[in-house]
Amino acid sequence: MALDQDAPGPYPMIIGGKPVTTEDTFAVTNPATGAVVGHAPQGTAAHLEDAVAAARAAFPAWASTPDADRAAACHAIAAKMEEHAEELARLITLEQGKPLGGVGSRFEMGGVSAWSHYTGTLSAPMQVLVDSDKERVEMQRPPLGVVASITPWNWPVLIATWHILPAIRTGNTVVAKPSPYTPLSTLRFVALMNEVLPAGVVNVVCSDETTDNLGALISGHRGIDKIVFTGSTATGCKVAASAAPNMTRMTLELGGNDAGIVLPDVDPAAIAEGLFWSAFINMGQTCAALKRLYVHEDVHDAVCEAFAAYVKNIPMGDGLDEGSVMGPIANQMQFDKVARLVADAARKGTVLTGGAPGEGLFFPLTLISGLDNGDALVDEEQFGPALPIIKYRDLDEVIAKANAGPTGLGGSVWSADVEKAREIAKRLDCGTVWINQHGMIRPDAPFGGRKMSGVGVEFGQEGLNAYTDIQTIIA
């Protein structure tokens, strides 16, 4: 299934282990240049039915495959992605915009390898709850069946890995649907997986949603046993509503508006780099990025100065340029949202860096001070390269402000006193709290949100167990 990455496609869907092309396609463009980088197949409801049927047909044999063989398949997938890492990284950059180097597409592919290998080391064995002369109680963790993966455009291959690898590790089969903004890398990813896996274990369909809304059809499909969705809270609510009549299992990783609290004992120059990557990794287009920063009044001005000085030295440009550290915003929809929020904030606060939109989809890295809760850039998830910095005096008050709002994905505390930071962390109403860092997720630690930031967790043993059912056997 090798494809010329310089050609415009069409890239096939993979259904039942076979490439499926369509007469109708849609163009995928490079956000850095606007040029068409490929064409994706316009999948239909009929293609979805075929994919679900293929996954259901493959399920019995894959579920009964020895556990060690499924573990080996995860490692084989990792090896396959390592072999094609540069090809996939280039494709991610072309359709998503992030740079090849630094914390960009090659970094994303490194995460694909790490998560795939780590998932291969996990297992969900039978547990003996009671074993006596009179009785034996066992708890089994059988696979659920067909898992649907619906992924966003910000980390297209890495998030697909987070969804698909634990599903197949536990004996499920998969139907994947990528974002219409970034379908090409996921189509290629699944094609490569099918060089390792039996036919029908992992299938992929895609559409630009102008004909059949495949996302909505997946959410309400009776042949799907679990939905794993990463995306906005608004869309996640729609997924949940569609899935409810079928009692479909769900893991939803939704929006966040992560707060960081900087205590007065920090060295502003020492934390500037950490703050930068916490807020602006992937141009801020990351669910668990730092989205609002509360800084104690004693160090506020010094932190602003050090942070702004660091930001001003970061090169931005086409992701294919090896000198680029930051790229464009990934699509016009997101660019317009960031521009709206920054324009509103600039009227109320002080622009420290950036502020005005650049050419095309390039938006300068923006820091704005003088804002507070109640301002749109503080209250809304910007999901882009703009960070509000809010001055505070009282610790209890700032914790209340950090906890305000409907979401609770992540948070951070920045301090020279780690033990004090730990105590503050316990008071933050979010799923993960980092100390002197932010957003550094890892495959061995559960990750999920509170409140409107989602349902369930991913990663680690808890994340793996979410792809299984519980059956108790009493004898």
Automatic annotation (TrEMBL):
Catalytic residues in the record: 253
Keywords in alphabetical order: Oxidoreductase
Matches recorded under Gene3D superfamilies: Aldehyde Dehydrogenase, Chain A, domain 1, Aldehyde Dehydrogenase, Chain A, domain 2
Domain of life: Bacteria
PROSITE patterns cross-referenced by the UniProt entry: ALDEHYDE_DEHYDR_CYS (PS00070), ALDEHYDE_DEHYDR_GLU (PS00687)
EC number(s) recorded for this UniProt protein: 1.2.1.39
GO molecular function, a single term: phenylacetaldehyde dehydrogenase (NAD+) activity
Keyword Oxidoreductase belongs to the record: yes
Signal sequence range: none
CDD domains on file: ALDH_AldA-AAD23400
Pfam families named among the record's database cross-references: Aldedh
Record domain Aldehyde dehydrogenase: where: 23-473
Family: Belongs to the aldehyde dehydrogenase family.
PANTHER family from the UniProt entry: ALDEHYDE DEHYDROGENASE-RELATED
Record protein name field: Phenylacetaldehyde dehydrogenase
UniProt organism field: Pseudooceanicola marinus
